[in-house]
Design goal:
By secondary structure, this protein is mainly beta. It is about 10% helix and about 35% strand. It is built from two helices and nine strands, in the order ααβββββββββ.
């Protein structure tokens, strides 16, 4: 009888315990190393679609919405000024415009916003078909590069001294952005034969903005300017 009990105990010890499919050891859907767990395989917090280092996360991948350095994020492509961005988006409808001298151009939607470009042409006679280019920190190497400026301003009465010899009032500039990248081009369309006294030949021209970025003089923030062109500008005449 005693031998029978010993054999029964030995038999019970030799049988492994029965574990369910959802334990915490090594089976699927547990918390250790199988699929869909929290360790190292697909669909957990380490591999694809997580927040670490792979595609579709928030680090370095294109088309994300982070604040790092990838394309289409919230860093270099956005305008630092929401009000300026709104004004620039409506550039096609800007109605205030001036052009004169050798050569100056200003344009904007109202007296409160003004984009102004100037070309220092050094009294060079314009030639039909010629294009003068002012560069701002650009690798482009044009044939006819000239000195010049491009600014975007916010304020009041910003056009009162443009292309006039009457200076009763003065513009009030409250904020200014200066071109830091890109180019502004001036293409000569038509040259008129009669010079102004002690002045240049009058001409018509097209002005183009190419890849321009402007920088805020107060905050240092930048804003891309849409590529755009204005045609039929009357230049080479002197106010007065």
């Amino acid at each position: 009888m005693r031998s029978l009990w010993i054999l029964l105990l030995l038999a019970l010890c030799a049988c492994p315990p029965t574990l369910g499919p959802d334990d915490d050891d090594s089976a699927a859907t547990d918390d250790d190393d199988a699929a869909d767990d929290d360790d190292a395989t697909a669909d957990d917090d380490d591999a694809a679609d997580d927040d670490d280092a792979t595609a579709d996360d928030d680090d370095l991948v294109d088309d994300d919405d982070d604040d790092d350095d990838a394309a289409d994020d919230d860093d270099s492509s956005a305008c630092s000024s929401g009000s300026l961005e709104t004004v620039l988006a409506d550039m096609a409808n800007w109605s205030v415009q001036h052009s004169c001298s050798f050569a100056f151009f200003s344009v904007g939607p109202s007296p409160e916003w003004r984009l102004a470009a100037s070309f220092d042409l050094n009294d060079t006679d314009p030639v039909e078909g010629q294009t003068w280019v002012v560069l701002f920190n650009s690798d482009f190497d044009p044939k006819n590069e000239v000195p010049g400026t491009l600014v975007m301003q916010q304020g009041d009465a910003l056009f009162v001294q443009d292309c006039t010899d009457v200076f009763e009032d003065a513009p009030v500039v409250t904020r200014q952005w200066t071109a830091s990248e890109g180019a502004v081009e001036l293409e000569i369309e038509t040259v008129f034969p009669e010079k102004w006294p002690d002045g240049p030949l009058p001409f018509n021209a097209t002005l183009r903005l190419q890849g321009v970025v402007v920088q805020d003089g107060i905050t240092g923030g930048t804003c891309p300017v849409p590529d755009f062109e204005w045609t039929g500008l009357n230049m080479g005449w002197l106010p007065g």
